[in-house]
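>> received
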Amino acid sequence: MATAENPPRTGRRATVMVVMPAYNAAQTLRSTFFAIPSGVADKVLLVDDASSDRTVEVAKELEIQVIEHPHNVGYGGNQKTCYMEALRQGADVVVMLHPDGQYDPKVLGDMVAAIQSGKGDIALGSRFLAPGAARKGGMPWWKFLANRFLTTCENLVLGLHLSEYHTGYRAYSRRFLETVPFLRNSNDFVFDTQILVQAAAFDFAIAEVPVNTKYFSEASSVNFRVSTVYGLKTLAVLGGYLLHRLGLKSRLFKH
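>> returned
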């Protein structure tokens, strides 16, 4: 079983990189960046997915590393660029932090510590570990119900006991990103589901850290229609995983 029992590169301090998959985040990027705890991240990278606002200009004013996509490739496609560049630059721990201000950057250190201490090769910032936190942060009731339904299905299929699978706040070890074939995943929102199902398929440990969130007009949020499509695709990924376990091998779940 692959675990994080040993630091990624013994003999030196692990390199931590925060990656921000960005799309029209000009209004919230500055406050999110300054909320990152001092001394936790060695590098910060923003990948802009062809924003139509000043996201890139603001990032450069903050002296954040920037990669600009020449055209929009989608949320999953943006993450692929984030992780490939983080690996290229030698990151040992990669934390995905949305620049829209929805997730609290203050727990970033806890997520990194979960990886470095051996609790998991993935750390999820969960909105459901603290009772009532999700609704208190403003999560719409229909997202709450959908999250609970999908999480129950995923726990049953994958044999895990996670409080949620649909957070956008995640940390990964280098070993995990070098092992799972995430480049084969979708370029849209279901990328997040696929990479966690891959974690289960490759027997990686997953840790959870409680996080507070806030929903507001400037924060990125998918609408009901997009969320419905995402939910159906999540169920399809679970179906594909079950077929894989039955012998109909999928390229998403093998080296």
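>> The two ends are 15 Å apart (CA to CA).
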